[in-house]
Specification:
Length: 679
């Protein structure tokens, strides 16, 4: 039985991603290289010219207008013309060309599908060629190739020319590929060089390849010598009986490229895999003392040739085989690991220098900016701390935070295993395991405490900047300081305690049942007051179980705290008699509103609830006068006032911003000193 094939059906089943729109051109160039190799087995020089044909420029730019309007925009690419001086389309080549999935050049790893990619990205292909027959007679052959009709319009005849070669025209670049492909000739040349780099580093080298775009041209041999290669070294690996040939390259650094593995088949690059940070110490450029370079590795193998997809855009090799019925087969991860190990050995001391510089970067950051991570550094795999010496503080913070998270997760799992162990197991192994687990827990808790203290140091630095005058002598609005202490228009039901910095005023404010910031009294669930006044901060503390019994029958059931914040250097207030009167007024309104718990239960004798009023304000003349009128006493450092108002049953404290900052620093100084934070 004879099987027939359909070109249109085969094309329909051939995949070419939009991002690979230049792959058909690269395939044509590789075909030319192989044709030159066949015609010149001794390695004589060959030549390939790639011409870019663009849409003709509209006659809108004359010689004067161009200089006025800037550079003329590049026109869309219509076609490519690839010309070589290889063996040409002799009868065997044509027969292979007309045979789908031909095995004519199978020894080179070819799949006979390159020309199918031509018709995926281009509407038509025209070929003209001169070749020599077995007796040396020269013939000329030309034909067209389309998806609808295949090979047509073939013309063959003798010619007087003795120079063999071929010209392949890839016509009518389909917009879906044209619009997503590189436009400039320099980028096309660079991508072509990277695709065919194997031919440049192989023994015997590569034919001259020239990319021509109008009056501009790029010689890939010069590009290779001047900008790409620093040095190379070959190596052969064996993984599960399969051999892989490696070419280690030191590519002269060029903006936009990263260390890569180039997985090749049929001497073509099939997949480019970035390996930045996959080798400890490899983060980008390295320096060998003479020049800066980017590492690249080209991998070729019969195994890769046999398992490349027909379109040469990937490999049919499973990523993992361990734990599957294919465990005896070779997986991509095993090959990658072997290649990365070889690359690490090749780069050697250069990576060690990078590792040391990266570790120094971590040490400096932890010592001066993030001491919270100091206790856990010894529990982190050192390879995970091999960061780039140029890593930003933001990225380094994120990396260390991820490591801390992983360590905490590991401790949860390990803790369950330790607890599930036999209680009476007092073996030396179990005791050592328990000791190591408790040691990790201790260091993680130290890290948590260090994080909390470090945050306080940052908050105080922000407060210090907030209360200082700017270059124009102006001060920030009070809402900036307000949000620093607690977000405005929020309650304790809306934000967590970690977001609030009430400790700046008084550590005891952390213990409350309800806290509101810049909310009207009528919106408080703790009172049914209809008042629309908005105290800056108001806190209610309910003692569900008494810890102190005072004389008499009443217990200290609750407390009310009102905090009033004023703009730096502007503590004056024309409303309600000043900030102290404002705070007392809020306190009185809450009491008259019948205070309740957040669950709506009444609190008895709310008019007797202790009140605490804090006024955060610079001591302007009017504020100081108001303090004296209220009978308050000046603090010893002359930076505040305090006292008790019997009528309102309230303790009052007026705190200047300097006193607020100094007191917060003093309360936390011992912690800052312990962490090595500057004070």
């Amino acid at each position: 039985m004879t099987l027939s094939t359909s070109l249109s059906g085969r094309l329909r089943n051939t995949s070419l991603p939009k991002s690979h729109g230049l792959l058909p051109l690269f395939e044509a160039v590789v075909n030319s290289i192989q044709s030159i190799d066949a015609a010149n087995p001794e390695g004589d020089s060959g030549r390939i010219v790639v011409e870019i044909e663009r849409l003709p420029q509209l006659n809108l730019f004359d010689s004067v207008g161009r200089s006025e309007r800037g550079p003329v925009p590049q026109e869309p690419i219509l076609s490519f013309r690839v010309t070589d001086n290889g063996a040409g389309f002799h009868d065997d080549n044509l027969q292979s060309f007309e045979t789908l999935d031909s095995e004519y050049k199978a020894e080179y790893g070819c799949r006979g599908v390159g020309r199918l990619l031509w018709l995926k990205a281009f509407k038509k292909v025209e070929v003209s060629s001169i070749f020599l027959d077995e007796v040396g007679q020269a013939f000329e052959r030309a034909f067209s190739f389309t998806a609808e009709k295949g090979v047509t319009d073939e013309v063959v005849g003798a010619t007087a020319s003795r120079e063999a070669g071929a010209t392949v025209k890839l016509l009518d670049f389909r917009p879906i590929y044209r619009d997503t492909s590189p436009k400039s000739h320099s980028t096309i040349a660079r991508n072509l060089l990277e695709h065919c780099l194997w031919y440049f580093v192989r023994p015997g080298g590569c034919p001259d390849i020239i990319v021509v775009d109008g009056e501009e041209q790029v010689n890939l041999t010069h590009l290779f010598a001047d900008h790409m290669l620093s040095s190379s070294q070959t190596q052969t690996l064996t993984v599960k009986g399969q051999e892989f040939d490696l070419v280690h390259l030191k590519v002269r650094s060029r903006t936009g490229i990263e260390p890569q593995i180039h997985w090749c088949a049929a001497n073509r690059v099939v997949v480019e895999e970035k390996i930045t940070d996959k080798i400890p110490g490899l983060h980008g450029r390295l320096n060998d003392g003479d020049t800066s370079f980017i590492y690249s590795c080209y991998v070729t193998s019969t195994f890769l040739n046999e398992n490349v997809r027909s379109e040469r855009t990937g490999f049919d090799i499973p990523e993992e085989t361990q734990g599957t019925i294919l465990a005896s087969d070779l997986g991509m991860s095993e090959i990658r690991t072997a290649v990365l190990d070889a690359a690490e050995e090749y780069l050697g001391d250069l990576l060690n220098e990078s590792k040391q510089a990266g570790r120094a970067r971590v040490e400096t950051f932890v010592n001066h900016k993030a001491p919270r991570y100091r206790p856990i550094l010894r529990h982190i795999d050192q390879n995970k701390l091999c960061v780039s010496p140029e890593i930003s503080e933001r990225d380094l913070e994120l990396l260390l935070h991820r490591q801390l998270w992983d360590l905490e997760t590991e401790l949860l799992v390990e803790g369950q295993e330790v607890l599930e162990a036999e209680l009476l197991d007092d073996s030396a192994e179990q005791q050592e395991r328990l000791r190591e687990y408790l040691e990790k827990v201790d260091d993680v808790k130290k890290s948590d405490l260090a994080s909390y203290v470090s945050k306080r140091r940052v908050v105080l630095d922000m407060l210090k900047k907030a209360i200082a005058a700017d270059q124009d002598g102006k001060y920030v609005r009070e809402d900036v300081i307000h949000n620093l202490i607690m977000p405005m228009r929020k309650t304790s039901d809306d934000v967590s305690l970690d977001v609030c910095n009430l400790w700046i005023i008084d550590e005891r404010l952390a213990f409350h049942n309800y806290l509101a910031s810049d909310k009207p009294l009528a919106a408080y669930p703790i009172t049914d007051s209809p008042d629309r006044k908005e105290p800056d901060l108001l806190a209610l503390q309910v003692c569900d179980s008494p810890i102190l019994v005072s004389e008499g029958s009443k217990l200290p059931l609750a407390s009310i705290v009102v905090v009033e914040i004023k703009r730096p250097m502007r503590g004056d207030s024309k409303q309600d008699g000043g900030p102290i009167s404002q705070a007392l007024g809020y306190l009185d309104r809450v009491r008259r509103g019948n205070v309740r718990t957040t669950q709506g239960r009444p609190i008895p004798a709310s008019d007797e609830i202790p009140g605490f009023c804090y006024v955060i304000s610079d001591l302007t003349p009017s504020v100081m006068e108001h303090c004296r009128m209220m009978g308050l006493r000046m603090t010893q450092d002359k930076l505040g006032f305090f006292g008790y108002n019997e009528n309102y049953k309230a303790y009052i404290e007026v705190i200047s911003f300097d006193r607020l900052l100094n007191a917060a620093h003093e309360r936390n100084r011992a912690f800052f000193d312990k962490l090595g934070l500057p004070t």
